[in-house]
Amino acid sequence: MKIKKYTTLLVLWLGFTAQVSAEKIQFELSIEIPKINASEYHAPYLATWIETADRQTVLATSLWYDDQEKWLKDIRQWWRKTGRTQAKPYDGVTGATRRPGMHKLVLKSQDIAESLETGEYVMMVEAAREVGGREVLSLPFSWPVKEDTAVKAQGEKELGSVTLIIKHL
């Protein structure tokens, strides 16, 4: 009798797990890089990663930089949390630096979904500019998402408006 009960529970659990993992979720970041009047302007290096509520790094999700790796250390929090332990090619989405304007970044949702357990998380966004400043924004979210979610943060200098949208496809 106990074996049948546990078998039923196992089948129900496996069915639930398959349904959750089969569900398609999209993680999208909209990042505004403000226009800065400076005699020597350099596009910022930018990194994004996910942390738990107690600041443990879960996953590196993106990195924008040019071919000068020596400046990656200027993205200080990212470097300390995950950057220095990575090797080229860096984990997550890599790409060139971006000029001022609004930029949309669709993250590798499957990798993110597989890395998260039920709980509270923070999407971190850090920008650093040569001969410029540095800024870090955090966008908290809960996992799993039951309905489409949008979280916004406003930068003061190196970043403008940043929005994380997590939606069901």
Task: Name the features.
20% helix; alpha+beta; globular; 169 residues; Immunoglobulin-like; 4-stranded antiparallel sheet; 5-stranded mixed sheet; single chain
State the helical fraction: 10-25%
| Number of DSSP strand runs | 9
Please count the helical segments.
3
> Which structural class do you get from the secondary structure elements?
alpha+beta
What are the segments in which pLDDT stays under 50 over at least 5 consecutive residues? 4-22
By CATH, the topology is: Immunoglobulin-like
Major sheet characteristics: 5 strands, mixed
Query: For the largest beta sheet, what order do the strands appear in spatially?
Result: 4-3-2-6-7
CATH class: Mainly Beta
What CATH architecture would you give?
Sandwich
Order of helices and strands: HEEEHEEHEEEE
User: Number of domains in the coordinates?
Assistant: 1
Mean pLDDT: 84
Q: What is the straight-line distance between the termini? A: 41 Å
Question: Radius of gyration from the CA trace?
Answer: 19 Å
Shape: globular
How much beta, percentage-wise?
Answer: 35-45%
Characterization of this structure:
- The chain is α+β, with helices and mostly antiparallel strands and 169 residues long.
- It has one domain (25-168): Sandwich (Immunoglobulin-like).
- Helices cover 20% and strands 40% of the residues.
- The chain is built from three helices and nine strands.
- The strands form two sheets. A five-stranded mixed sheet has the order 4-3-2-6-7.
- Strand 6 (119-128) and strand 7 form a beta hairpin.
- It starts with a helix and ends with a strand.
